[in-house]
Amino acid sequence: MASGVDLVIFGATGDLSRRKILPSLGALVARERTKLRVIGAGRSHDTTDQFRELVKEASGNPALAATAEWVTLDYADPASFAPINALITGTAVVIFYLATPPETFSPILVAIANSAMVTKGDPSRRVVLEKPLGYDRKSAKELNAQLATAFDESQVYRIDHYLAKDTVQNVLAFRFSNSLFEPVWNRNLVETIQITVAEEEGIRQRAGYYDQTGAVRDIFQNHVLQLLALVTMEPPTTFDPDYVRRAKRAALRAMSPLDVTSAVRGQYEGYLDEPGVSLESRRETYAAARVSIENWRWDGVPIFVRTGKALRRRATEVVIKLRDAPLDR
Question: What is the pTM of this model?
Answer without folding.
Answer: 0.82
